[in-house]
Design brief:
about 950 residues; mainly alpha; 8-stranded mixed sheet; 37 helices; 15 strands
């Protein structure tokens, strides 16, 4: 419905005709300013804005010299100077209608000019002079000229003038101006939807320039106008709320300090490169060229053919995913808004996931423009780019692979609807660690456009060094580069220096004299990374601490601080939400005298917030949106590393016969209590496990054989249900109540969940100990873990693992898969009964599955490279996309198995039965063994090349 109101000049003498009032502008425009006359803002009128003014009929087409003069004026002066000129020419005060007739179009022009200055799309438009003839040209030959002529005949009475002042962007005059501008933009090549978004924002911002012009107006006009202005706020709630969000939540993010430094993320940020991910294999497509990440994201936004694609950026910890999100969101706001309006959401902050993605977004944004308007996603005046950061950090009800998959499918459905519905048009970009997708590969939505962040190459690293030099000086920057080039610097350290987070830590510690090449002698692999974290924590203790720690620390105080930090790491990880209550950290420290004494000393000197303030010095910060006692790590990696340190300490206690802190520790009961306390919270991540095993391997207190025996004893009792069935009060119940007391709002863990996670995490440790021992000649005969027991012994239980998988479904379908499947490499599962088991995407590389029953099992996308599947029953199994390179399938039953797109390079298939198997699009090579393979002639979709090789034609 149109709100245009055109009234005949014959109906009222009090009406102001825009054509009459604008005539002076066409002849006297040159008097608006003189060359070099620039107002306080210093923003010059752009050529595009002048062309639009010409199209409106404000300026004369023959006044090009005057146009050059006007180009020297800032936008903020047009409305003011225009009114002054009119007053001087007429020698009388304008009426309210006359003031509105002149000031409003000029203020609208100022608003448009301001947007041209920042919006990249507008800066690229090149309007043709033929389309810019003034509306007064006769006869009007195109739509733009017809609309301009219509505008000139628009007549203002007091009612319409009041509407302009009360809420300009909803006024009748704004609607006419919007139509003219929209047509001009479309003639310049901008599509209709984007043109309408641009014009709506130009109209909304016009009120700001009208207010400035009103300050210079005559008293009579200003007093009347202010009466209208006081009746209703100029800004509509939607635009005001959205603009506030952008200024407070987007514009500020690049300006956050880097940890405790005085410089910001913007000061040292360098955009990384990405490479496309092969959707079938989930690996980087090595044939594709790397591209700068922001260029990729911009191209995706601009490509209308990919409007249904969800952008997914994957990368390991510390690779720069979150920093990219905050920097790119700010860039979009500065350069593409309002065509694209960025909304940045940390997925870790979402506490409730609704049944629809739209409702989840509404709750996550929380601002007025979304919370009070159910139609905010179908408003044609806005188009959002949702940046969802941290897919791996989703705080879901159970957090299993099924829930993650469901969430992705919700996003897929939303993105598809955005392409189908012209009222939407939004885009979604997600970031996350690659391992978050493990277990759901092959079942992911087809519209994910995945790329992976690459480590810094030499060119990008040099760009970073240039920015670093600006912050620390040339000498220190050059010295750090020499450190990395030193022949004694381990290759692993140089590799880690290609990760943005670790590059900063290395550079900062080297700047402060806390890093030398001698420190890394003998360090390799994850050990070098751990050394960096340990040194950085020591560096924080001595160089980056708060004022309350600005004194020489004693050894006891240092130990107390490390204990506080380690407990904070455990609490944050156990919380499941990346933040933890300070009271919870204190509660867990109640038995540690050094930590409690340090906290008490701090409180005596600095009050009740002392611990919270202390933690803020160690990569911790107040949790987002929280003012009362919650902290989170500034980067997830620190929390994971410190959690691993805390677990390492307790695991050593499991085998220590002496004193555990202040109490004797020898009983099995105490061990059981500690296991539930440490592991009954959720799944261990691969990063924590990697840190933990490296820390244990380097410890002189590590007793692997004794630890293995104690954990195996717990595992077997857990499999029998001993702990869950204990009465009247049991360990799973105690842990559940503890978790709910510490975080009342978090009710995701029930009795079964606590019990399942405790058992599965112990199973992970046993699998890791098994792998560790097999690489040690003195341990491989002493430590061997059989999840089902050793075949042909009294302890063998053929169904044990299948029962565990079934029991784990209490935390969601695929509960076992999402927790343990990443750690099954080299597992001893020979003879296990796993019929119909869900092992989708599991890492079973090198596993012993000989004679296992895998009939109908889901092994889609599983890694079975080097696995022993000899004599296994794989009939009807789903091996679509499975990686079977180097696997031994000799004598295996593959009848009716689904091997579509499976990798059979180097696979031993001798004597395997392939009756009815589907071999569509398999890959194989000269090392694949087909000797005496059975019933291959009955298999479906056998490649022609294979038929020729085996003489099946």
């Amino acid at each position: 419905m149109s709100y245009l109101r055109f009234i005949s000049t014959e109906s009222s003498d009090r009406m102001t005709n825009l054509k009459q009032i604008w005539q002076f502008l066409k002849t006297d425009i040159g008097e608006l300013g003189k060359p070099g006359d620039v107002a306080e803002t210093g923003t010059e009128i752009t050529k595009f804005a002048l062309e639009f003014a010409l199209a409106l009929g404000l300026f004369s087409a023959t006044a090009s010299p005057a146009g050059i003069v006007v180009a020297g004026l800032s936008g903020a002066k047009l409305a003011i100077q225009g009114m002054r000129l009119y007053r001087n020419k007429t020698n009388q005060e304008p009426s309210l209608e006359e003031w509105v007739a002149i000031a409003s179009p000029l203020a609208y022009l100022e608003s448009f000019n301001e947007l041209v200055q920042s919006n990249d799309l507008l800066q690229q438009v090149n309007l043709q002079p033929a389309n810019l003839q003034p509306a007064s040209a006769t006869p009007p030959t195109n739509i733009a000229q017809q609309q301009s002529a219509k505008l000139e005949e628009f007549q203002l009475d007091e009612h319409l003038a009041r509407n302009v002042l009360t809420c300009f962007h909803e006024s009748e005059l704004a609607q006419v101006l919007n139509q003219v501008l929209s047509n001009q933009l479309q003639q310049g090549g901008i599509n209709k939807q984007e043109a309408e978004i641009l014009t709506s924002w130009v109209a909304w911002k016009t009120h700001q320039h009208l207010k400035k012009a009103l300050e210079d107006a005559e008293d009579s006009v200003r007093q009347r106008a202010e009466l209208y202005l006081s009746g209703k706020r100029q800004e509509s709630d939607k635009y005001y709320s959205l603009n506030t969000y952008l200024e407070e939540q987007i514009a500020t993010k690049p300006l956050d300090p880097v940890f405790r430094e005085i410089f910001t993320f913007k000061d040292i940020y360098v955009p990384l490169k990405v490479q496309p991910v092969n959707p079938k294999k989930g690996e980087i497509d090595q044939d594709a060229e790397p591209i700068e990440i922001e260029s990729w994201a911009k191209a995706m936004l601009a490509d209308v053919q990919k409007q249904d694609k969800v952008m997914f950026i994957q990368g390991g910890p510390g690779r720069g995913k979150s920093v990219f999100c905050r920097m790119f969101a700010d860039w979009v706001w500065q350069h593409l808004h309002p065509v694209w309006t960025p909304i940045l959401i940390r997925l870790r902050d979402i506490r409730t996931f609704e049944k629809s993605f739209e409702k989840t977004l509404q709750a996550a944004v929380g601002c007025n423009f979304a919370a009070t308007d159910d139609g905010w996603l179908t408003d044609r005046d806005t188009r959002f780019l949702f940046l969802l950061d941290g897919f791996d950090e989703l705080v879901m009800e159970r957090g299993t692979s099924q829930e993650l998959k469901d969430f992705l499918w919700q996003v897929e459905d939303f993105q598809g609807s955005c392409k189908r519905n012209s009222e939407k048009g939004h885009r979604v970009l997600i970031t996350g660690r690659p391992l978050a997708l493990q277990g759901i590969e092959g079942r992911m939505p087809p519209n994910l456009e995945r790329v992976e962040l690459l480590p810094m190459d030499d060119e990008l690293q040099q760009q970073w060094f240039t920015k670093w030099e600006t912050q620390v000086g040339k000498n220190k920057s050059s010295a750090f580069q020499e450190f990395l080039q030193d022949a004694r610097c381990p290759d692993r350290v140089r590799e880690l220096a290609k990760e943005p987070l670790l590059l900063y830590l290395l550079a900062a510690m080297h700047r402060d004299g806390k890093l030398t090449v001698e420190m890394f002698e003998g360090a390799s692999g994850v050990g070098a990374k751990i050394l960096i974290y340990e040194q950085s924590l020591e560096w924080v203790l001595t160089e980056q601490r708060k004022e309350w720690l600005n004194r020489k620390l004693t050894g006891q105080e240092t130990a107390g601080l490390r204990r506080i930090l380690a407990e904070a790491g455990l609490c944050v990880v156990q919380s499941g939400g990346e933040c933890a209550a300070v009271k919870t950290i204190e509660s867990r420290l109640k038995d540690d005298e050094s930590a409690i004494e340090l906290i008490q000393q701090a409180r005596e000197r600095h009050g009740e917030d002392a611990l919270k303030n202390a933690l803020a010095a160690f990569y911790l910060q107040a949790a987002a949106g929280d003012k009362d006692g919650y902290v989170e790590f500034a980067h997830k990696s620190f929390g994971e590393f410190l959690c691993a340190e805390r677990l390492k300490e307790s695991i050593e206690d499991l085998t220590r016969p002496g004193i555990k802190r202040q109490e004797f520790y020898i009983s099995t009961d105490q061990m059981d209590r500690d296991i539930y306390d440490l592991f009954g919270y959720g799944e261990l991540t691969p990063e924590i496990v990697e840190y933990l095993m490296a820390l244990l391997a380097a410890s002189t207190e590590f007793q692997p054989v004794k630890l293995f025996k104690r954990l195996e004893n717990f595992y077997l009792r857990w499999c029998d249900g001993e702990f869950l069935d204990a009465t009247p009060e049991n360990l799973p119940q105690k842990k559940m109540l503890q978790m709910r007391e510490q975080a009342p709002e978090n009710e995701r863990l029930g009795l079964r969940q606590v019990d399942i996670y405790a058992g599965l995490n112990v199973m992970i440790l046993l699998l890791e100990l098994n792998r560790y021992a097999q690489l040690k000649d003195d341990l491989k005969d002493k430590i061997t873990f059989y999840p089902c027991g050793e075949k042909d012994t009294d302890g063998f239980d053929v169904y044990r693992l299948l029962r565990i998988i079934g029991y784990s479904q209490c935390i969601g379908i695929g509960g076992f898969l999402g927790t343990v499947s990443k750690f099954l490499s080299r597992a001893n599962l020979n003879g296990a009964y796993l019929r119909d088991a869900n092992l989708n995407g599991a890492d079973l590389s090198g596993a012993n599955l000989s004679r296992a029953n895998l009939n109908g099992a889901d092994l889609i996308d599983a890694d079975l490279s080097g696995a022993d599947l000899s004599g296994a029953d794989l009939s009807g199994a789903y091996l679509n996309g499975a990686y079977l390179s180097g696997a031994n399938l000799s004598g295996a039953n593959l009848g009716d198995a689904h091997l579509n797109e499976a990798d059979l390079n180097g696979t031993n298939l001798s004597r395997a039965d392939l009756i009815g198997a589907d071999l569509d699009d398999i890959s194989w090579d000269k090392y694949t063994k087909w000797e005496n393979v059975q019933n291959l002639e009955t298999a479906e979709n056998v490649p022609e090349a294979l038929k020729q090789r085996l003489g099946l034609e």
